[in-house]
Write a structure and sequence with these properties.
- The structure holds 2 protein chains of 2 kinds.
- By secondary structure, chain A is mainly alpha-helical.
- Chain A is 74% helix and 1% strand.
- A two-stranded antiparallel ribbon of chain A has the order 1-2.
- The longest helix of chain A is centred in the C-terminal third of the chain and has 34 residues.
- Chain A is globular and about 80 Å long.
- Chain A starts with a helix and ends with a helix.
- Chain B has a single domain, classed as MetI-like fold (Orthogonal Bundle).
């Protein structure tokens, strides 16, 4: 009897907290996203009206408004492209690093792994700020370029989409390396030797042996980079210019500047449905499936 | 021969890429000049100004307080989730439980921040609480999204852990509670500490969620730093970076130490 009480306490304390402070807030976003907007405080009407009998007062106008305006769709697409490019570069830099760390001898491996992840522990905001210093007009990169005679005058490196990609690849790289390393680490190195013995050259070994076996790691790392980058706000704000608008910025301005709460909520909820839900459902199905197969 | 050269070069370039910006930041923190990018000479001037900057010091204290409290709550609740998911069979609406405990990991911070803010505003309209936003609302939001990180560490630890030890203790007459407190929790203690450190750092570093849920008297360190560097550079922030980077890297090393322990 006592065990049961104990289990209930363990299951329901966090359950209660998360329903109250996570699920209900998400439900409120949905509720406000289907409310009729109006001038006032709060800037939307209630979805249940009781003045002349009970009436449900909802609308999908906010979604129509967002999805028919290129300003919103365009910035969402910009964010998706940004996330795609950044994920690609993280993979390009992260894969060889993860591979070589995983194939080092065990002592070196642990040291390298800690070295790779440690920057991730230092402040995110300050790491982005560091790039602001490096990419200034009189910053260190321009000084090097000038002294090498590659350019005759300082380049405008900051406040454009390339600076944003740079900042994202830099800050998210450890998130790519860790899961990649996790999978590459499990991998039997003899397979590489075997494929060489069987006459495959390096390039073929890479595409036929190494790459297929690291697919789960690539998928995991790419998701860890891709999803947060779509919603990234700080990096474009600090390093980006006005050449491109992104989803995060639009959402922020819709809420804080335009004071359009229903519009901002509709943007946020669309983001959840398009981006987050498919992955979460996949995860839940996968974890239930793997649990069942284990038992 | 050739391949080991390539290997060393790749690893060296990778590490250089990761550490170069941090080193630049620390280097310029010793610059005497107020104009950050023009080197004038070595000086500790900005460290001195930093320690006399009340706004930054106050923000730092608020941030540490919120981070320590939310890490503690998140660790307690996260351990409960990790334990429930691995050891307790009957969880009502289990998929929903997993959904609640894993979604904060992948939800963009911006959406989480917006939902928390709208929640607090609605709650205030309904029950008159919280009448203004501030440290309490940041604390609640930080707990909510740190829980998932702790839960995942604990879950991984408990999955590895040999259940026989717990069963043996039960056969020897320990009851459920005693097994938990005398056997299970002590064994996973390093992971609990690692989870706390991770939650602490995440809370300390968070800008987006805190920006949404902050209010009067609750300017956390990232909020103050962001307002200083959004439009330009600040020599005081350089000095702060050097100190903070150093402190956080030490916390990171501790995390590795505790999280490593269970792997062997």
């Amino acid at each position: 009897m006592k065990n049961k009480l104990f289990e209930k306490y363990f299951v329901f304390s966090p359950y209660f907290w998360l329903v109250l402070f996570f699920f209900i807030p998400l439900a409120i976003i949905f509720k406000i996203s289907i409310s009729v907007s109006e001038w006032g405080m709060p800037p939307y009407q209630d979805i249940f009206l009781f003045d002349n009998g009970f009436k449900i007062n909802t609308t999908f106008e906010n979604y129509v408004y967002i999805f028919s305006d290129y300003y919103y769709i365009g910035s969402f697409v910009n964010s998706l492209i940004l996330a795609l490019i950044s994920t690609f570069f993280c993979l390009l830099i992260g894969f060889p690093l993860a591979f070589y760390i995983a194939t080092s001898n065990i002592r070196l491996r642990n040291i390298l792994l800690v070295l790779v992840v440690i920057p991730f522990w230092s402040s995110f905001l300050l790491r982005v700020y560091a790039w602001k210093i490096i990419l200034q007009n009189n910053g260190i990169l321009n000084v090097i370029l000038l002294n090498l005679g590659i350019t005759s005058e300082p380049l405008q490196l900051l406040y454009n989409q390339y600076a944003v990609i740079m900042g994202i690849v830099y800050t998210y790289l450890p998130l790519m390396i860790l899961p990649l390393y996790g999978y590459l680490n499990k991998f039997d190195l003899n397979l590489i030797e075997a494929s060489k013995d069987l006459g495959l050259n390096r390039i073929k070994t890479f595409f036929k042996v190494i790459l297929p076996l690291s697919v789960p790691g690539i998928v995991a790392g790419s998701l860890l980079v891709f999803i947060p980058v779509v919603g990234e706000f700080i990096i474009p704000e600090m390093l980006g210019g006005s050449d491109r608008l992104y989803y995060g910025k639009i959402l922020w301005e819709e809420f804080f500047v335009n004071r359009n709460w229903p519009g901002a909520s509709a943007l946020a909820f669309s983001g959840i449905i398009i981006l987050v839900l498919p992955i979460v459902i996949f995860q839940i199905l996968y974890s239930r499936w793997s649990q069942k197969n284990e038992i | 021969m050739k391949s080991s050269l390539i290997k060393s070069t790749v690893v060296f370039l990778g590490l250089f890429f990761l550490y170069f910006p941090i080193l630049v930041l620390i280097f310029y923190s010793f610059n005497e000049n107020k104009r950050v990018m023009v080197w004038k000479g070595f000086s500790l001037r900005w460290y001195n100004e930093l320690f006399n900057n009340e706004q930054i010091i106050e923000a730092f204290i608020i941030s540490i307080k919120i981070a320590a409290l939310s890490a503690t709550f998140a660790t307690i609740l996260g351990v409960m989730i990790g334990y429930s998911l691995v050891r307790i069979r009957k969880i009502p609406f289990k998929s929903f439980y997993i959904f609640l405990s894993s979604t904060p990991l992948v939800l963009p911070e911006l959406i989480l921040g917006l939902s928390m803010l709208l929640f607090f505003i609605s709650l205030n309209n309904v029950i008159g609480f919280p009448s203004s936003r501030g440290q309490l609302t940041i604390f609640i939001s930080h707990v909510t999204f740190c829980i998932a990180f702790v839960a995942i560490i604990i879950q991984a630890r408990l999955t590895d852990f040999n259940k026989n030890i717990e069963e043996a203790a039960m056969d020897l007459g320990y009851n459920y509670t005693k097994v938990l407190y005398k056997i299970t929790l002590p064994i996973i203690l390093p992971s609990i500490i690692a989870g706390w450190l991770l939650a602490f750092t995440i809370s300390l570093d968070d800008l987006v969620v805190a920006s949404f849920t902050t209010g009067p008297g609750a300017n956390t360190l990232p909020i103050v730093v962001f307002s200083k560097v959004r439009l330009g550079l600040s020599p005081e922030v350089n000095a702060l970076s050097a100190i903070l980077m150093f402190a956080l890297i030490i916390i990171g090393l501790f995390y590795f130490y505790f999280n490593k322990k269970f792997k062997h």
